[in-house]
Amino acid sequence: MIERYSLPEMKHIWSEDHKFALWLKVEVAVCEAWCELGRIPAEDMEKIRGATCNLDRLAQILQVTHHDVTAFLGAVAESLGPESRYIHLGLTSSDVMDTALGLQLRDAAAILQKDVESLTAVLRSRALEHKHTIMIGRTHGVHAEPMTFGLKLALWVKEMERNAVRLARATEAISVGMISGAVGTHATVPLEVEESACRRLGLGVAEVSNQVIQRDRHAEFLTTLAIIAGSLEKFATEVRALQKTEVQELEEPFEQGQTGSSAMPHKRNPELCERVSGLARLVRGNAMASLENMALWHERDISHSSVERIILPDSCLVLDYTLNIFTSIVRGMRVNVDRMRRNVEMTRGLIFSQRALLALIDKGMTRQDAYEIVQGHAMKAWQSEQSFRTLLEDDSQVGSRLTREDFDRVFDYGCYLKEVDGIFARAGIDSAPRPHHATRKC
To answer: Which domains does the chain have, with CATH numbers?
Structure first.
């Protein structure tokens, strides 16, 4: 099951091999900028473009230096000749590390954006499929009034569209580089070098920096991932609730040969949705850590570094994985339309209490009197399991005001569907044909 959702693209972005390759890419881009200014001869620049980093050699040097950037620079220098003196010219470690991190986050965000769009498309398709599928709406977990399953999914579509906008905004904030030297003064590296290098890398420029790119950018990115994960947990929690045995309106995919319990062969558990809920907690916790990383001593310390080595790759990997899981859930989940209808009818018409109230008000009864009459019969219907409509029809105060045609209009599911097309149109979700059974009377 886990391997089905393993995602090699995201894993590659956060691999050690790729990280050091990006460090080298940043170093070469800076050298290109120096070459433009005449600081590095063209023939030396040609050799620098062929620089490599032997990761085994890097690991050996690291055992001595205990500093990954100096170990990296040593390994790169060994692949070059005298021209190696131009590598890291005027830079400090964070120039390379933070700029490469911007590349990693930008590329990771591009994958997440595709994931968000894929889930949104699947949600939209299923919303259209069930645009007029009647189900009960619940408040406080208690039956309220009928709605449609399509409306529930349309709500999720719009939330994911907002998440796409949030992610794009956060991606822009994080897609910056910094080539400003120690404490950000540009004393050893001119502004032109920074701007040229970042342009070559496809990044924006952090206009003012100290010795690091400021961590409010990373906090914005991770809190955005936490919001997206929170949406997924919200959706998954709803599927879980609707999969309860007593409800049975939805069921996440359950494949041939799959088991739900080692002890009880009958079990079909919403374990994928539970996994989504659990992983969302992890992303939220990481977002909190990113907020803690914003406050550093003076122009820089490295208290944030050890944290980010965990929370940035883990959050991107977890959200990528979770988005793919939930997309597969939505695509394959079983919608029990008949059970939805039976659950709507479970309370023998009580869900029409507001319409009965409004009908009596329209016939001239005060709201207070109408409410007391309708509530009284509703409570009796709860306790006696009698038909709510029958109780109202047998009440002379109600029967003297409402005709049979009035009762038919009150107890009509069609009233709950009349604005559904308009809601979908306003939301920009394409239309679907309306089934003939949508307005069946109670």
So the answer is: 1-89 (1.10.275.10), 91-255+262-341 (1.20.200.10), 348-439 (1.10.40.30)
